[in-house]
Design goal:
Blueprint: H1 6-25, H2 38-49, E1 65-70, E2 75-80, H3 92-105, H4 139-142, E3 171-176, E4 179-187, H5 191-205, E5 222-224, H6 245-252, E6 255-257
Parallel strand pairs: 5-6
Antiparallel strand pairs: 1-2, 1-4, 3-4
Helix pairs in contact: 2-5, 5-6
Length: 262
């Protein structure tokens, strides 16, 4: 057999590079620390979206996506509550990851900030107006791979930073006994229902040792204090949605209704 042609050599080299890249993608990033793995997140998400024998979360009663990032903003896990990938809004996969990125980016070791707490400040005239455009998400990360991998342990977002800033409910920082460990994002229903689901998931994960936040006593709870004039007395308010999400949030300890004195 003769020597391979230059073209054949290039093809072989490219194939080997692709194989090595695929193998690397399937492996966790060396030294990457994560508070939650895929199987744990998927199991608890399913139990939290439609609690067995318990109250709903309000909203449309949809299936949901969830994503977790570590403290460095790298995606650790992506999961969905339905039986297949399109049982929940496909667009909410990216939103869940961006919510997790946001809660992690705006929370500190000694003070948590839920994405719901950012709503009022991100409106025109608010002290965070423009924040939603400050850290654009990475389309090349979000749309990599194939839909068959989305929401599985091999989701293409895992091991990569996604970016994005979302200023409505569904994102919560995660706190273990040592401080902040990353954040969780939930999306697929009304933003108010997303917050309720995220609150349940975080609690069942045992990562709700929140030290403090902008909401007194409730820490990073959603604050429903936006009045008819559109203003939030606390400065960290979130609008009510169309269902009973606000009542459910109060019952869960995940929300505060009415004026909040800080």
């Amino acid at each position: 057999m003769g020597k391979p042609t230059v073209r054949a050599t290039v093809i072989i080299a490219a194939a080997l590079a692709m194989l090595q890249g695929a193998t690397a993608q399937d492996q966790p990033r060396p030294g990457m620390s994560c508070p939650v793995d895929h199987d744990q997140l998927a199991d608890i998400l399913k139990k939290s979206v439609k609690p067995s024998g318990g109250p709903s979360n309000g909203g449309l009663d949809n299936n949901e996506w969830a994503a977790v990032v570590n403290r460095q903003g790298v995606v650790c896990a992506v999961a969905y509550s339905g039986s297949k990938v399109d049982d929940q809004w496909l667009g909410s996969r990216a939103i869940a990851a961006e919510k997790a990125n946001t809660a992690n980016a705006f929370s500190l070791k000694n003070k948590a900030m839920a994405t719901a707490n950012l709503y009022a400040g991100a409106q025109p005239g608010g002290f965070l107006f423009g924040a939603a455009l400050s850290n654009p998400p990475s389309p090349e990360v979000i749309y990599a791979g194939t839909p068959e991998e989305f929401g599985t342990a091999k989701d293409p977002m895992v091991g990569k930073p996604v970016g994005g800033v979302i200023a409505f409910g569904g994102g919560l920082a995660l706190y273990d006994g040592n401080g902040i460990a990353g954040a969780l994002g939930v999306s697929g229903d009304s933003s108010c229902a997303d917050h309720n689901v995220a609150w349940r998931v975080r609690h069942f994960l045992g990562l709700d040792h929140v030290p403090a936040g902008v909401s007194p006593n409730m820490k990073d709870a959603i604050i429903y204090d936006i009045g008819p004039d559109g203003k939030s007395p606390s400065g960290f308010g979130h609008p009510k949605c169309n269902g009973k999400e606000d009542q459910i949030a109060v019952d869960l300890g995940a929300g505060v209704s009415g004026n909040v004195v800080r």
